[in-house]
Every structure is written in C-alpha cells, then in structure tokens.
Amino acid sequence: MRQSQSVLYFIIFISVLFSYLNLPSDLKFSRKVMGKEFSFTLPRPRVNFKIGNWPSDPELNFKKGLDLQGGMQVTLLANMDRIDKGQRQTALDSVSSVISRRVDLYGVSEASVKTSLINDQYRLVVELPGIDKPQEALSLIGQTASLSFATPLYQTNPASPSAEPTLVDFIPSDLTGNDLSSAAVTFETDDRQPAVSLKFKDSGRDKFAKLTKAFLGKPIAILLDQSILSAPTVQSEITTGDAIITGKFTIDEAKFLATQLNAGALPVPIEILSQKNISATLGDASLNQSLMAGGIGLAIVIVFMCLYYGWMGFISVLGLLIYGLITATIYRLIPVTLTLPGIAGFILSVGMAVDSNILIFERYREEVRTGRSHPVALELSFGRAWNSIKDANLATVITGLILFNPLDWSFLNTSGAVRGFALTLLLGILISLFTGIVVTRTLLRFFYKGAKQ
C-alpha cells in the first residue's frame, strides 16, 4: 500500500509539472481586492538542455513541420557521373553539408536536408519552412560548391613603420578544389588528437608547395563559397602533396571540416527534380481541421467511456488526460516535428490506449461475475489482460519501427511524412503502456471501490 501511495504522489507530481510546462504562454493575472489592484505574471518555463547534438527548444514551443508551418520543399538530384563509385556517398554527404551551411547563412530556421538513394539516383530533400523568396533560395542551394585557397594580405601602418604588419584580407590563389584529391579525419599527429589530412592531386602538389614556401609561418585561408572554413598557419614547406591541419579539434569538428573540404574536392552538379510550395494559410487550415476532427473523436470516446463504464470510465479519462500531458511535454522537449501524418499517428495511439482500458474493464467485469471481490478482480483483470495488450502493442511497435526505418535501410521507407507518422505512433504506444498499466491502475486502486459502492 505504501508503494502504491508513492506511485500516486509521483503521478500527481508529474501531472502538475507537465501541466505547468504546457502552459500556452506567459499568463497575466490582474484583480482588484479591497480597492487595490494585484497583478502578476506566471511565465512559461524556459528549459535549456542538450544531449549530444540533440538540443531542446528553450521556449518549449511545438516544432511544426512544413505542411503545418508553410514553406518550400525541393528535391535535388546529385549528378555523380564524374565521381568514382567508392566516393559517391562521401560526395553526397559533403553536398548535404554544404547545402545545410548555405541554408543557415540564408537565415532559414528549422530547415532540414536529408539524403536518399533511389534506383542509383543520389537525391537530397531540402525543406525550408517559412521561406518567402523561393526563387532566391533555389538559386542559392542549387549552386555547385566552390573551394579555393587564399593567401594573406598584410598592411603596414604608415604612422609606425616598425610595427608588425596587420592582416587585412585573404586573396584567392590559383590553388582550388579541383587540385584537392580528398580530405579525411586522422589521428596521425604527435599528440594523437583529431586532425584533418589533405591529399592533393599532381596538379595541386607544386602549387601547394609554392604557397607553403612563400608563406611559411603565415596563415593560408581555405574558402568554401567565398567564406572562410579554416585558416591554418604554415608550419613548414610541404612538397609531397600531403598535409595535416591540426588544432584543438573534437572528433565532430574534424569530421565536419573534412566533409566541407570534400565538398570542394568532389564538386557535384545539382539538378532540381521537383519543387513544392505550401502556404502558411493552407497549413493553418489543415492543422485546425485535424485538431477539430481529433477533438470530436476524443469527445465521443470520453462520453462513451463515462456512460458505458461509469466511474471506471471517468477514471480512465483522467488517465488519458495525463497521457496527453506526458505526450505533449515529450513533443516539446525532444522536440518532435509535428506534421499532419504525425498528428494522425498520435490520434491512432490514443485509440489504442482506450482499447487497452476496454480490455481491462471487460476482464474486470468477467472476474466480478465469477464472484470475486473487487480488489481481487481488479488485480486479476490487469494481469490477465496484459498478454492481449502486450501482443497487440508489440505488433504495432514492430510495424512502426519498419515504417520509421531508424537504420536508413534503402529497401525500406525513407519518406519524412511516413516517418513522422511512425514516430508519434511509437511514442504514443510506449506512453500509453505506462499510463494504462501504471497511472490508470493506481487511480483505480485508490478511487474506485466497486460498482456496489
């Protein structure tokens, strides 16, 4: 009994906490008491945490997908005819990295760039929510990456000729990405720390040797699309065509720099296969219609559960409300990108949560009809209904994993819309198992004393 009380207190705690986290906005209260006006603001909390490369939104806003927020989706085809087969995936990843960088510089928030391989076609799907100049964005992301090496330009202060010259700019040289063979992460350094190795072609070996000889002890900038990627200082003259960029890199930083360099070393022409524009008004209308349909369906379910199962049904509705709070909080914290298929997956998971309650309640009625007391019937109903609930949900989880395709297998689905549906469905099922077996069971133990009472 004491353990059940602890679980009940925990349920109350998370219900209050998650209700607070799901406040719609900063709430302002103002009221006059005995002629004096009292006002205060209850701010919605800001939560800022990061797990690896997985940050949360400090404002705890729902992250809307392209079909709800509006914007543009572009499918690009990467022309790999001039790229060796062994380097095509590396080249595709480099193109994806360059396009992501361009999108960030353009100022588009919440953009996504995904790669896929369909029938030997290397494709990229770029989603740009909230874009208002589609042609300008298309011209930006459709360009082939341009890599060049630039030499430093120094300027002497006329007022102080003896002072050290000041670095004022970098001037592009004749050494370009066409002269670079490849870049890769390496640990072959004195301190065994992550670094980036460069291998030049025969056409670039002599050019690079001249640069390192002329600018020994000075920085040489590496430019991608006219922006500085890195400006390493030349430590010695390099005549072999093999160089290493060292620094206090993390593994992720070294990988990122190598990917960016490969984008210029393996230039891939980009073609636009398709373009789809979605207006924000259409997205709002679709969201409102989906929420209306879901609200009507949920209301019908609540009325049915309360009328058919009475007090047990009402307690199960409380469990569904807690399920909704937990789900909404997880959507905000991860955050989950909400799309119309994703909302459909959530509504389907609600239906499965209700189905689990119905299996338990019908089993409870059967146990009561056999003459068992209320406490015994309640515990037996949960235990004996668990096998059916487990099998049904396990089959759906397996289907959801196949649709979500977490390992990116090319023979399975790679569509973002289908994955959004699968993700919300999987999360909903896992959360519904917790609320059905733990939350609803605990509430029934404390607040339902049998039909006769």
Automatic annotation (TrEMBL):
<dbReference type="GO" id="GO:0005886">
    <property type="term" value="C:plasma membrane"/>
</dbReference>
<dbReference type="Pfam" id="PF22599">
    <property type="entry name" value="SecDF_P1_head"/>
</dbReference>
<dbReference type="Pfam" id="PF02355">
    <property type="entry name" value="SecD_SecF_C"/>
</dbReference>
<keyword id="KW-1133">Transmembrane helix</keyword>
<comment type="subunit">
    <text>Forms a complex with SecF. Part of the essential Sec protein translocation apparatus which comprises SecA, SecYEG and auxiliary proteins SecDF. Other proteins may also be involved.</text>
</comment>
<dbReference type="InterPro" id="IPR055344">
    <property type="entry name" value="SecD_SecF_C_bact"/>
</dbReference>
<keyword id="KW-0812">Transmembrane</keyword>
<keyword id="KW-0472">Membrane</keyword>
<dbReference type="InterPro" id="IPR001036">
    <property type="entry name" value="Acrflvin-R"/>
</dbReference>
<keyword id="KW-0813">Transport</keyword>
<comment type="similarity">
    <text>Belongs to the SecD/SecF family. SecD subfamily.</text>
</comment>
<dbReference type="InterPro" id="IPR048634">
    <property type="entry name" value="SecD_SecF_C"/>
</dbReference>
<dbReference type="Pfam" id="PF21760">
    <property type="entry name" value="SecD_1st"/>
</dbReference>
<dbReference type="GO" id="GO:0006605">
    <property type="term" value="P:protein targeting"/>
</dbReference>
<dbReference type="GO" id="GO:0015450">
    <property type="term" value="F:protein-transporting ATPase activity"/>
</dbReference>
<dbReference type="GO" id="GO:0065002">
    <property type="term" value="P:intracellular protein transmembrane transport"/>
</dbReference>
<dbReference type="GO" id="GO:0043952">
    <property type="term" value="P:protein transport by the Sec complex"/>
</dbReference>
<dbReference type="InterPro" id="IPR048631">
    <property type="entry name" value="SecD_1st"/>
</dbReference>
<feature type="transmembrane region" description="Helical">
    <location>
        <begin position="421"/>
        <end position="444"/>
    </location>
</feature>
<keyword id="KW-0653">Protein transport</keyword>
<feature type="domain" description="Protein export membrane protein SecD/SecF C-terminal">
    <location>
        <begin position="270"/>
        <end position="448"/>
    </location>
</feature>
<feature type="domain" description="SecDF P1 head subdomain">
    <location>
        <begin position="174"/>
        <end position="268"/>
    </location>
</feature>
<protein>
    <recommendedName>
        <fullName>Protein translocase subunit SecD</fullName>
    </recommendedName>
</protein>
<keyword id="KW-1003">Cell membrane</keyword>
<feature type="domain" description="Protein translocase subunit SecDF P1">
    <location>
        <begin position="94"/>
        <end position="150"/>
    </location>
</feature>
<keyword id="KW-0811">Translocation</keyword>
<dbReference type="InterPro" id="IPR022813">
    <property type="entry name" value="SecD/SecF_arch_bac"/>
</dbReference>
<feature type="transmembrane region" description="Helical">
    <location>
        <begin position="340"/>
        <end position="361"/>
    </location>
</feature>
<dbReference type="InterPro" id="IPR005791">
    <property type="entry name" value="SecD"/>
</dbReference>
<feature type="transmembrane region" description="Helical">
    <location>
        <begin position="7"/>
        <end position="23"/>
    </location>
</feature>
<dbReference type="InterPro" id="IPR054384">
    <property type="entry name" value="SecDF_P1_head"/>
</dbReference>
<comment type="function">
    <text>Part of the Sec protein translocase complex. Interacts with the SecYEG preprotein conducting channel. SecDF uses the proton motive force (PMF) to complete protein translocation after the ATP-dependent function of SecA.</text>
</comment>
